[in-house]
Each structure stands twice: as C-alpha cells, then as structure tokens.
Amino acid sequence: MTDLLHDPFVQSSLLPLLLGVAAVGLLRLAGGQSGRSLAPAGIALAFLLIFALVVGVPAFPPPSSMGKLFWSAAGGLVLGASLDLAGVKGRAASLAVAGWLALALGWIAGPALDSVAAALPLAVLLAVGAWVAFADSAASEDRPAASAAVLLALSLSVGVTALIGSSASLAQLGLALTAATGGFLLWNWPTERHLWGASGRIALGLPVLLAAILALYTQVQAATLLLALPALAAGPLRRRLPIPDTGFGPALGTVAVTVLAVLPALVAIGASWLLTGGEASPY
Amino acid sequence: MKKILSAAVLFASLTTAPAFAAPVAYKIDPGHLSVAFIVNHLGFANLIGRFNTAAGELSFDKAAVETSSLSVSIDAASIDTNHAKRDEHLRSPDFFNTKEFPKLTFKSTKIEKTGEATGTLTGDLTMLGVTKPVVLNVTFNKDGVSAASKLETAGFSARGTIKRSDFGMKYGVPNIGDEIQILIEAEAVKS
Questions:
Q1: Residues of B with CB under 8 A from a CB of A
Q2: Coil, helix or strand for B127?
Q3: What is the pLDDT of residue A245?
Q4: Which residue stretches of B28-109 are H helix?
Q5: Overall average pLDDT of the A249-267 stretch
Q6: % of chain A exceeding 90 in pLDDT
Q7: pLDDT, tens digit, for every residue of A101-127?
Q8: Is B30 in a helix, a strand, or coil?
Q9: B96, B79 in Cβ contact below 8 A?
Q10: What is the pLDDT of residue B16?
Q11: In angstroms, rounded to a whole number, what is the distance separating the alpha carbons of residues B22 and B20?
Q12: CA dihedral A38, A42, A48, A49 (to 10 degrees)
C-alpha cells in the first residue's frame, strides 16, 4: 500500500481522481445550503493533499516558490470556501479572487523579478489571472462543467509541459490537478449538479500559479503554454454550441466542451515536445 | 625600575606572541577542489554526482587547528551527474531550485581535533534558503610547498552525511535517497 502511494503515476492520476471525487462529494454534503457552490473546493483540497504527499508540507514562512505555491493554494481554498459559505457572488467575489491571485503571483514571482524580461511572463500570468477572476465569472455559475473543462485543459498542459521539461514535482501536481478536476466532472456528468462559485475560480487559479513557477524558475519552454490559452474560450463557446434541448443535451454539451478545451492544450503539449526534442529525464 | 622594565618587556612579548601563531589565510584552489555526493537511486545503486564550480577561503593554523575556519560557496547550477537531462531536473524546483537559490554555502563554526591528522568540522550549511548545522570528518593530508605550483599549499579530505529533507528537498524521498553522502577533496593555497 505504501509502495502504491509512493508511485508517481498513482500520485498523479488514480489517487487525485479518488480524492477529488471524495472531497467534492463530502464538501457538497457538509456545505448544507452552500454545498453546491462549495463542492469545487474539493479540487483544491485534493491538490493540497497530493502536494503534501509528493513534495511534503512546506515550512511557513516558505523559503521557496514551491512552498509559496502550497500556502497560496491553502489560503485560496480558505478564501474561496469562506466566500461561498457567506454567499458572496458577482463582482465582490471576482475582486477577492483577483486580489488573491495577484498577491500569490507577486509573492511567487518576487525573487525572480530581477529584469524587465522576467517581468513579461508575470504580466502575461496576471492577465490570465484577471480572465480567470473576472471573465470566467461571466460564465453561467450553474454551468460548472465548462469552467471545469478549462481547468482540466490548463492543468493538463502545465503538467505535461513540466514533465517534458524535467520538472517532475510540477508535472505531478499539474496532472494531479487534472485528475482531481476529472473527479469533479464525474459528479457533474451527465447532469450538472454543482455551482462554479469563488471556490471554482480559485481552483482555476492553481494552474496559473503552477505556470508561474514553470516560467520563472525552470528551464521549461513555458511560452508554449500560451498555445493552451484558447481553452479559456470554452465557457462562452459552451453557450453557443447547438446542443439539442433534450435530457441528453447537457451531457453531450459537457463532453463537447471538454474536447474543445483540451484541443489547444494538446497543441501546447505538442509544441513543447517538439521544442525540447522529447527526451525525458531518467529521474 | 629595572624589574618594571623587564616585566613590561615580558608582557609585551607574551601579548605579541600569538600574532606569530595566528591563522594564515588560504584560498581554496578551484582546480583542485572536488565536491561530490552519493545518493541512493531506488535501492538499485548509488549515483555519484559533483559540483564543478566552487570557491572558498580557509584560515588555517596548523599549531592550533581549533582556531582555523573555513567558508565555501558552491554554484548549485554547476551540478554534474554525467547526464544533461537529469542535471536539468536536478536544477529544477524539485531539487536544487538553482534559479531561486543559486548558491550553497558552508561556514565553519567549530573545529575539533580528534587525532594526529584528523578532526571534526562543524559548520552551517545553507541550501534552498535553509541553514542547518552539519558535521564533517576531516583528514588533514599534507601541507608545504607544492612541487607543482611552488606555492604554500595545504590539502584536506572531508566526509559527511546530510539529510536533504532537513533542507526542504523532499521530492522523491524515499525512492531517491534522503541521506546524502558528501565527499570533499580540497587543496588550499596560501593567499
């Protein structure tokens, strides 16, 4: 059993998937009336549990960017859950999520900001963060599958790009986030049962933070991740899809929007593979 | 009066005597410095790696080794395990996180003699922004004028073990060993 828990493949796939399913379900139940909004917090919770298993619980205050990622995610989880439990929605929730993401990005990127060139990736990440905080909130809250599909696609592209670029722990965390999101999507297929509130948008900020470490502290060709950004359009696209107005329609819509979101992620992964020659680290 | 003068001369000679026995400044010769490590890989074998760039200073007093001191700075990105892709991984945040923490430093805090040519060197190792005390077993090999460089040279070997998780480097434990053996071979040249 211990060997299984220490298997990187299990840590990046089956375990976070099960944790995601369990955490989403438990938070849905424990949240009472706010349970539907609180459920996506299970994704961040599963992410943190896998982080603790793969990297360990970092010291506080954390000396490294990885430690800052953990504590930023933990802070985000508490913030998102608090906002959802308090019933905070709309612009106020968006501002809170944006503030959290900007602070976390600044905290993580701080030591790397020694030149104008280093500030450029941060500017791009802040712009993506703003989209996550504000534009995603424009998506219908009761259509969480589209936003979860975006999260799945972004975390997949970050995870595999990190794997290609020899950053194994970031790869495992990115893939674990993908699997945990898969757990959330399972709860919302064929029927969308939950809401995508502040907790959901906090989860959507996690691949942005992972990408920040990849871009600023590794030799990974993180610029290829820009190719995955069209996945952000999955939400608006979902509303325009000619989905049949039948009981089967929403289930088909979720599958379609997930495929559409994952396509740009695959393009980003392919570009990263081509740029690095595809040689993997022997670890 | 004569007695007072004699006492003064004696006092002066006593107080100035340590100046002659004071530690002498040496610089670590980067061309004859090897900083290597051994780590267990999945229980199958031990992998040997090294850091190719390091610098250091030694203040050495052969007569009173306890008063000597050493400081070393290692370029973390110079890690070399004879595999470019693995070295890239070792430079990543999984291990040495070299963009964020470009240097590993060691500063001695205590030196104790344990034998004719052996001793323990205690110092603060800073890695990944974490400073922890480490103890190295040191063997003093030789000092004198080097036949090659014609410079006053002192040579040492040091061995020790650290737990990388103590410094926050927890990735891959226990598959990739937590205990790291450190091997240092150094020659220092009188400044």
A1: 83, 85-86, 88-89, 91-94, 97, 99-101, 128-130, 165, 168, 170-172, 174-176
A2: strand
A3: 66
A4: 84-91
A5: 90
A6: 66
A7: 999 999 999 888 888 877 899 999 999
A8: strand
A9: yes
A10: 44
A11: 6
A12: 140
Q: Is the pLDDT reported for residue B8 higher than 70?
A: no
Q: Residue B17: what pLDDT?
A: 44
Partner residue facing B171 (CB), from A55, A67, A281:
A55
B15-58 pLDDT, tens per residue?
444 445 688 999 999 999 999 999 999 999 999 999 999 999 99
Contact indicator for A76, A205 with CB cutoff of 8 Å: yes
ipTM value: 0.78
Q: What are the tokens at A43?
A: 């994704």
Domains of chain B: 23-190 (2.40.128.110)
Q: What is the rounded radius of gyration, in angstroms, for the C-alpha atoms of chain B?
A: 21
Q: How far is CA B131 from CA A235, B28, B100, B122, B167, in A?
A: 47, 22, 15, 13, 7
In this complex, do B92 and A54 lie within 8 Å of one another by their Cβ atoms? no
Closest chain B CA to residue A278? B85
- Closest-CA residue of A relative to B99 is A217
Q: Mutation test of the interface with chain B: which of A158, A209, A217, choosing the one with the most B Cβ atoms within 10 A?
A: A217
Mutate to test the interface with A, among B94, B101, B103 (most CBs of A within 10 A): B94
Angle at A65 between CA A61 and CA A67, to 5 degrees: 45
**Closest of A173, A176, A165, A126 to residue A271, by C-alpha:** A165
pLDDT at residue B4 is higher than 60: no
Residue B12: its pLDDT value, please?
A: 45
